[in-house]
Design brief:
alpha/beta, Rossmann fold, 2 domains, five-stranded parallel sheet, 11 helices, 9 strands, 36% helix, binds phosphoric acid mono(formamide)ester
Length: 308
């Protein structure tokens, strides 16, 4: 039995047994709460704080739903209305909120490493979960992506995946690669414009393929990434039509992938830039399934870090 996690800040170096245990628990949660129609009381009396310094639709809402379905109290901290806007330092905000007796902080921040900083400064007994930090990690997205893949392709040793788009700025790509490698994926290809690709040394075990037609050939899953314009200098922004032409996923390109290839995207989508609507809304799309799985994965992670 792998050790219980006290915090979740990254999937880097996470053993496959821990990942599998969290995915199994997510499935148990889905069964136990009858796909969300029944509430559980595993976290009754516990308090979860959503502390999002960057915008979010999926992650923040699903953490809230997950906590509520487990019977916890949830505080959605509104940064815009908080004393952060008066210049209060992050750690003063942390200690102020801790004084109100929290059990878990779910944090999203534009600066990579912030969740680990919070772990170092948090009171003993307060768990920290990373909901996305800079371009570094988005561990619960990585887990929900693995759950979505595992439901359709249970044998990771046979799995060929391509991750395409703005890999350089993508915390999702980093967490997906950590999890895919831990689970023994057969082949992980990365594809995107040269200016949006990371150093190869940052992604050991992955193959960089420049041409998307070649990169997608025969894969079992394609994970498309959003162009993260908010993390780019305006001079780095690619021409959107040219980008779609070279790196967009449409039905013609999808036909080059393996039979029944899973189409995934963490969202939000830039339709017509990295993915065509015919694919995003098509029969092979698993995008909304990813969203649904996110709630159960986050229920599993909340129970894990709170020892339930
Ligand atoms: N996938 C993801 O993190 O989406 P949100 O930014 O909407 O949370």
């Amino acid at each position: 039995m792998s050790q219980r996690l006290r915090h979740l800040t990254s999937l880097e170096n996470m053993p496959s047994a821990t990942i599998e245990r969290l995915l199994d628990r997510a499935v148990s949660m889905r069964d136990a709460c009858a796909h969300g129609t029944r509430k559980l009381d595993l976290l009754a009396g516990r308090t979860v704080l959503n502390l999002f310094f960057e915008p979010s639709t999926r992650t923040r809402t699903s953490f809230e739903l997950a906590a509520r379905r487990l019977g916890a109290d949830v505080i959605n901290f509104d940064i815009g209305l908080s004393s952060t806007s008066k210049g209060e330092a992050l750690f003063d905000t942390l200690h102020t909120l801790e004084a109100m007796h929290l059990d878990t902080i779910v944090v999203r921040h534009k600066i990579s490493g912030t969740p680990d900083e919070l772990v170092r400064h948090a009171m003993s007994g307060v768990a920290v979960i990373n909901a996305g930090d800079g371009n570094r990690a988005h561990p619960t997205q990585g887990l929900l992506d693995m759950l979505t893949i595992r439901e359709h392709r249970p044998d990771f040793r046979q799995l060929k995946v391509v991750i395409c788009g703005d890999v350089k700025h993508s915390r999702v790509a980093r967490s997906d690669v950590h999890a895919l490698r831990a689970l023994g994926a057969k082949e992980i290809r990365l594809c995107g414009p040269a200016g949006l690709m990371p150093e190869a040394s940052e992604f050991p075990g992955c193959t960089i393929v420049e041409n998307f037609d070649e990169a997608i050939e025969g894969v079992d899953a394609v994970i498309m990434l959003r162009l993260q314009k908010e993390r780019m200098a305006s001079t780095d922004l690619p021409d959107e039509a040219a980008y779609f032409e070279r790196f967009g996923l449409d039905n013609r390109r999808l036909a080059l992938a393996g039979k029944g290839c899973l189409v995934m995207h963490p969202g939000p989508l830039n339709r017509g830039i990295e993915i065509a609507s015919e694919v995003a809304d098509g029969p092979q799309s698993r995008i909304l399934e990813q969203v649904g799985n996110g709630v159960f994965v986050r229920m599993a992670v909340l129970c894990e870090v709170m020892g339930r």
